[in-house]
Amino acid sequence: MSLEGIKIESFSLGPLGTNAYLLSRPEENKGIIIDPGMNPKPLLKRIDGMGIEAILLTHAHFDHIGGVDEIRKLKGCPVYLHDNEADWLTNANRNGSTKWPELGGPIVTEPAEYALDEGQVLRMLGLEIKVLHTPGHSPGSVSFLSGRHLFGGDVLFRLSVGRTDLPGGRTEELMDSIHGKLFKLPGETVVYPGHGPKTTIGFEQENNPYV
């Protein structure tokens, strides 16, 4: 399944350069947002006047959720998050925002409206978006797959992988997620990670020194 008619834009937000993604249908002026991070002013400017159907979270670490409250209130859109991190939005200790106060202080939002689960299919913008539960970096990490496009959060990066030394992280789970789910996808699948440049499954299979 292609993403024909869909525009994919990325925004590097906040002190950790977290990638937020906007998927939109320009002719309908509608979109969805994946991981609205901290200091979301560039993203807010871009979606001015645009209808936002949903905010999808790959996980709930503070650098990926900093813009959730502002965008949700502005656009009246629901938030989707895996149940394993259901209390991370409401608890600054769980989402890690109290661990590095120099990066901006505690982040607390209302709970997510909808829970994500393995194999779930979301239908938005005329797309089918499959949810893959890919824990390891965090217990509720998910990846969103639509056609040959994968929005993977902090699981797999170009020539690197997500860290596992934060609470709830497990190296064995991360490797299981990468080898058991992501590397089962076609090599031409484009990976849009939570930090850094995009890559492909095939390139990482051949070149990533961590897997």
UniProtKB/TrEMBL annotation:
<comment type="function">
    <text>Counteracts the endogenous Pycsar antiviral defense system. Phosphodiesterase that enables metal-dependent hydrolysis of host cyclic nucleotide Pycsar defense signals such as cCMP and cUMP.</text>
</comment>
<dbReference type="InterPro" id="IPR036866">
    <property type="entry name" value="RibonucZ/Hydroxyglut_hydro"/>
</dbReference>
<protein>
    <submittedName>
        <fullName>MBL fold metallo-hydrolase</fullName>
    </submittedName>
</protein>
<dbReference type="GO" id="GO:0046872">
    <property type="term" value="F:metal ion binding"/>
</dbReference>
<keyword id="KW-0862">Zinc</keyword>
<dbReference type="GO" id="GO:0016787">
    <property type="term" value="F:hydrolase activity"/>
</dbReference>
<dbReference type="InterPro" id="IPR001279">
    <property type="entry name" value="Metallo-B-lactamas"/>
</dbReference>
<dbReference type="Pfam" id="PF00753">
    <property type="entry name" value="Lactamase_B"/>
</dbReference>
<dbReference type="InterPro" id="IPR051453">
    <property type="entry name" value="MBL_Glyoxalase_II"/>
</dbReference>
<feature type="domain" description="Metallo-beta-lactamase">
    <location>
        <begin position="17"/>
        <end position="195"/>
    </location>
</feature>
<keyword id="KW-0378">Hydrolase</keyword>
<keyword id="KW-0479">Metal-binding</keyword>
